[in-house]
Design the sequence.
């Protein structure tokens, strides 16, 4: 008699074999980054989205893939666009992965085919900059830092 458990290596039904997809790992890291920036514990996030904290750990390390509906819930709790979790995916993430070409980009080249950078207000560095700014003590110091940044950005 054929034993199903033997054929799947004692893995539970629906589990994946082999290494995690690099995009799943990237999305998990972005979930963890956003959660820690907002000072939300794994337990709090888990309670808000209706899973165990162990499941959140598995999402964050890329071991378990986050479904679209769960990613939507996570984006609501962490107050960010779903696209946030896919920001900064570079060649280091996609290098060993098959990447299909978008149908809309057939026949286009270079910058025409590229994705735009998205909303800078959703980027991690923007959140870090705002948090650092508000940690500065005193209105005058914050005003001076703001003026410095404005002047630096004018110089290109």
Sequence:
């Amino acid at each position: 008699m054929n034993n199903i458990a033997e054929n799947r290596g004692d893995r539970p039904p629906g589990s994946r074999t082999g290494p995690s997809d690099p995009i799943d790992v990237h999305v998990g890291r972005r979930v963890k980054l956003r959660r820690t920036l907002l000072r939300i514990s794994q337990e709090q996030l888990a309670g808000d989205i209706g899973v165990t904290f162990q499941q959140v750990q598995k999402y964050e390390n890329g071991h378990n893939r986050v479904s679209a509906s769960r990613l939507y819930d996570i984006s609501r709790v962490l107050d960010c666009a779903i696209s946030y979790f896919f920001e900064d995916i570079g060649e280091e993430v996609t290098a060993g992965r098959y990447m299909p070409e978008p149908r809309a980009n057939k026949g286009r080249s270079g910058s025409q085919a590229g994705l735009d950078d998205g909303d800078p207000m959703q980027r991690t560095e923007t959140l870090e900059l705002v948090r650092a700014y508000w940690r500065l003590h005193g209105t005058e110091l914050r005003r001076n830092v703001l003026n410095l940044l404005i002047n630096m950005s004018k110089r290109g």
